[in-house]
Amino acid sequence: MNKDVIIACDFSSAAETFAFLDRFAAESRKPFLKIGMELYYAEGPQMVRELKRRGHPIFLDLKLHDIPNTVRKTMRVLSSPDIDLCNVHAAGTIEMMQAAREGLTRPDGSRPLLIAVTQLTSTSQDRMQKELLIGKAIDETIIHYARNAREAGLDGVVCSPLEAGMVKEACGADFLTVTPGIRFADAAADDQVRITTPARAREIGSDFIVVGRPITAAADPVAAWRRCLTDFCPETL
Ligand code: C5P
After folding, report:
1. Is 3 known to be catalytic?
2. Structural domain containing residue 114
3. Count of domains forming the chain
């Protein structure tokens, strides 16, 4: 799959999401969309089906973390609306990630891309060490979890764009890095900490950037999306 900009649809209803997407109606390219827990729990699989029907590639960002059997069976259900990308927590173990991959694989052998969350970007090294009792440095933990994900047969990880280079170095150039924490150089960081620009994320090696408020809260979301595409993946335009 080509490099792309994934818009985080952090909306709480279908109506709000469709009102936002109406602004893209004149575009021949359908934006890649991320549906997270808020929208999925509010509107369910019907929402995914409708966005697929409208032609959008979908990243279903539900970050599964449970016993392997439950994750396998849940992934079987989630793969049916034909999503393109989904994820689990690497902390669920290699066995759980393998179960997720098996559950996602359709009878014809095809499956959506599957990636793992290593350490959430909201987790500081201090909290990880004091609350989770993981004594290592956070970068070491991230690389270890990424290697586990690769061993389980996953396609990549979600990480900060600033970590994409070291993940590629440890796991190979074709191991996907999907990176939130993207801001334009002339904009506010909001609550994000380890951020960079679309152009820099490209240089470091991200395969997909996940962009929320810089697009969804922009006065002209279509222009902001196009600016991300121009800076991050101009060859796809
Ligand atoms: O609005 P903003 O661009 O900060 O949105 C980033 C999106 O990526 C949000 O949906 C957020 O939940 C998600 N995300 C993140 N950091 C992670 C994992 C997911 O910001 N480590």
Report:
1. no
2. 4-236
3. 1
